[in-house]
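Q: Convert this sequence to structure tokens.
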Amino acid sequence: MVGKTIDELKIGETQQFAKTISESDVYLYAGITGDLNPAHINEEYAGNTFFKTRIAHGMLTAGFISAIIGTKLPGPGSIYIGQTLNFKAPVRIGDTITASVEVSEIIKEKNRVKLITTCVNQDNILVLDGEATVSPPKTLNP
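A:
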């Protein structure tokens, strides 16, 4: 299975991925990455922070963008080149996050695509935005 090639992509094309953040997601991410910041894993500590409760890792949320790029748009065979991220609001356990990517620029001569990337919660509050640069898969038969 191969994702969309540069010639198959269109400006304005979008894809989404949604997931509800569970406590297990936060603990598993902490264990995998080694990011044991108590703001994420210790409710007593987090209760004394600005957010008053534990929040999900920002990069966990950003990973949903990667899921879209690698599986939907452009899809399998795509290579991430770069990503800017702006964290706008906290993501809490129980929030449902919808990540979106939108093709904003196609650079055929370099086989590059620029994507507007966003994540919103169940209340449509923007929690993350940025821009990705991706190399979509090349055709198998040039």
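Helices lie at 23-33, 38-41, 43-46, 58-71.
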